[in-house]
Amino acid sequence: MINIKEFSAGAVAAGIKYKNRPDLGIIYSPCPCVTAGVFTRNKVKAAPVIHGMKRLCGGNPYIRAILVNSGNANACTGAEGLAHVERLTGVAESALGLNPGDVLMCSTGVIGQPLPVERMEQAISALAPELNKDGLSDVAGCILTTDTVKKEAMRRFECGGAPLTIYGMAKGSGMIGPDMGPPCATMLAFILTDASVKPGFWQRALERSVEASFNKIIVDGDTSTNDTVLALASGAAGNSVISGGNDAEVLQVHLTEVLQELAKKIVQDGEGATKCVNVLIEGAMDDNEAEKIARTIARSPLVKTAFFGQDPNWGRILAAAGRAGCHLDPERIELLIDDIPIVKNGTGTGSELEAKAKSAMGNREFMAVLRLGLGKGRARITTCDLSTDYVRINADYRT
Amino acid sequence: MINIKEFSAGAVAAGIKYKNRPDLGIIYSPCPCVTAGVFTRNKVKAAPVIHGMKRLCGGNPYIRAILVNSGNANACTGAEGLAHVERLTGVAESALGLNPGDVLMCSTGVIGQPLPVERMEQAISALAPELNKDGLSDVAGCILTTDTVKKEAMRRFECGGAPLTIYGMAKGSGMIGPDMGPPCATMLAFILTDASVKPGFWQRALERSVEASFNKIIVDGDTSTNDTVLALASGAAGNSVISGGNDAEVLQVHLTEVLQELAKKIVQDGEGATKCVNVLIEGAMDDNEAEKIARTIARSPLVKTAFFGQDPNWGRILAAAGRAGCHLDPERIELLIDDIPIVKNGTGTGSELEAKAKSAMGNREFMAVLRLGLGKGRARITTCDLSTDYVRINADYRT
User: Fold this and answer.
1) Distance between CA B41 and CA B180 in Å, rounded?
2) B267-322 pLDDT, tens per residue?
3) Which of A77, A223, A390 comes nearest B323 by C-beta?
């Protein structure tokens, strides 16, 4: 059982979209937690995102609990949607014996439907007394939508003179396409640690780790209205407060690892995905151009359907790179699938190597390495294939 | 039968990819034609594109014939690919009794394979004596790849004191995603007219019409290595040479109409497409932002799968608009499917109107009109849905 000092948690079936499926959860801390948050940069923001951003930008970075639901995103719901967030966080605050502003809310699910607030109020009141130290995994389960598996990650390490733990849970399967630059995120993720940290440092640390993890994955390239990452540090480990220096670096490394593990799990569980593909660009003019090219390849429907068909159709990868609006000399291009070179000097290396690449593409995970031979720019984006199941899932989503 | 003074044409089965399917064509003019061309802006350009751009930028805008093949794009084929273009245009020039440089070549099909030049040489020699005035539709057929129907359009009108004709043929079904700004194009299209025009005017006229047609469609958003539009004006109509003024405007209008008709036929025949959707943005800050938002919606996999599922999932359309990086006030947004308002003030108008919209989305063509209420910016992009068949076609393309 996962257990992070001094958090308790639990989940319950509130009947938000489906019956008898846990869809509402609470994570609770007995003491105020230093809280960092990053949110979607989509101009269309869901009510809980608007509420959460306002709350965390208000100069008081301490919260006590997260209220989360799946089945309904509470997005594009206008003033009523915001009122629902106020009302439900208020109910949770009362039920947990907390002060106004101590609870943040996150939602995920269908856009444009009002929340079933009465049912949710009853669920919150029933759940609050049942929270327990082993309930985190139940919350990780109740936040799933089209996800097929729970996504959790944990690291234990020594830092600031004490053994620390960072635990994270995430959900996300479709509408996964990060907008760049903090503060932003690409899905729902809750990071919990017993570390003692300074608020300003903790916010910057989260932004940095998000940039190196969730902001480097693409499932379909669509950016959600509800993307939120919250990181709560309880301080229960009793370490010396971390705000910079070597301790900060150690914490950052482990935080990034947790987020990267969660990010990868999101891609592996991408809607309809059968493969996880690491697109690595080397030798671009600079890192920016490398990332633009990697993203263009990772979003190309023709590249992604070729991945699905296990077809080393390198022409599509080169064509996608060529339309990214970056420097490119076709005659210098090399392309490898894992370590199999299928393009040299901009043209194919023959059917034998292609056959080997085809076989490598049968694995659940492989690399596509594009070397441009122009400069030192590098980037890596992790993506998945585009399958008939992706279309089926999303053509039928609301029915 | 389509017949444009004084062009002759024909097609033959050269066995380039499939047996017994016409895949090589020639369009021929007995006199030099004023020729305009726009080409893909993809940095990875196929050999015939490199050859054609060089030929047309050389200061001599007169050509006599187009040699075209399907089944093989001759892209990413290095120096050998360029040598093949030289060799095959040379064979065509000899067979047609023309001078070096009189023939332009276009190719479409799989990337990265050498052309079967011997078979193509024999086919050219056999075809050259067989060209005839009724052969244009045969060429329109031989250029198809994953297309399911021929695409042709024609306008007859009075201009410069003579009755003129503009005829166009096009191919394109997948890898359809125009790069913006001339000179560029999105697929293969050949425009033939008997009009007498000045070269500089003709090139600018073609660029303008391409911008208003092919550059405003998206199937999958991938930009090809081979996109080419060639426009040949024979002058056989005997009109006074058009270079500006009212005649130029009349000609431009009809040219744009022909290109728009062909562009729409490409979307209607998009790979796996079941619906043609006109995405219209009104009230954006400016036209540029309107076009960015329209393109983001038209490329969104979640929006396109909802179109396929006939699901008026307006939340996905708003979410796509929100990530376009443009000005947006969610609370002012209105969305109509045809004339049915399903979003007002940024939120849904209820299940009754959604049911009507769902029914409208069952048609082969409908409008999605997004009104932002911010300014006077407008744009229109024509796109199609994303179906399971799109994935099937592209997962299996090379097998």
Assistant:
1) 8
2) 998 889 999 999 999 999 999 999 999 999 999 999 999 999 999 999 999 999 99
3) A223
Compare CB distances from A315 to B112, B221, B390 and report the shortest one's residue: B112
Counting every residue written for chain B, the total comes to 399
Residues of chain A with pLDDT under 70: 176-186, 397-399
- A227 vs chain B: nearest CA distance in angstroms? 11
Q: Are residues B100 and B200 in the same domain?
A: yes
> What value, to the nearest 5°, has the Cα angle with vertex B173 and ends B167 and B175?
115
What is the predicted ipTM? 0.84
Q: What is the pLDDT of residue B397?
A: 59
DSSP annotation of A244: S
| Residue found under tokens 């919209």 | B357
Q: Are the C-beta atoms of residues A31 and A235 closer than 8 Å to each other? A: yes
Bridge partners of residue A111, in order along the sequence: none
Last residue of a domain, one of A241, A268, A295: A268
Examine the domain organization and report whether B291 and B260 are in the same domain.
Answer: no
Domain count, chain B: 2
A341 touches chain B (CB under 8 A): no
- List the single residue in A44, A78, A388 with the smallest CB-CB distance to B391: A388
| Mean pLDDT for the stretch of residues B16-22 | 92
Catalytic site residue A145? no
User: Both A246 and A283 in a single domain?
Assistant: no
- Domain boundaries, position A390: 276-395
Q: How confident is the model at residue B249 (pLDDT cuts 50, 70, 90)?
A: very high
Provide the 8-state DSSP code for A179.
P
- Mind telling me how many Å the CA of B310 is from chain A's nearest CA? 8
Q: Are residues A232 and A301 in the same domain?
A: no
Residues in Cβ contact with B359 at an 8 Å cutoff, skipping those fewer than 6 apart: none
Residue B206 within any structural domain of the chain: yes
Contact A76 B318 (CB under 8 A): yes
A78 in the same domain as A59: yes
- Of all helices (H) and strands (E), which one includes residue B92? helix B78-96
Residue B120 sits in the same domain as residue B223: yes
Flag if A319 and B111 touch (Cβ within 8 Å): yes
Exactly one of B186, B193, B223, B383 is catalytic; name it.
B186
Nearest residue of A to residue B342, measured between CA atoms: A112
Q: Is B321 close to A221, i.e. CB distance below 8 A?
A: no
**CA atoms within 13 Å, Cβ hemisphere of B97:** 4
Task: Indicate which residue of A40, A145, A146, A186 is catalytic.
Answer: A186
- Judged by a CB distance cut-off of 8 A, whether residue A223 touches chain B is yes
Q: What CATH code is carried by the domain that includes residue A143?
A: 3.60.70.12
B111 and B250 together in one domain? yes
Domain edge (last residue) among B268, B284, B310: B268
Contact state of B311 with A77 under an 8 Å Cβ cutoff: no
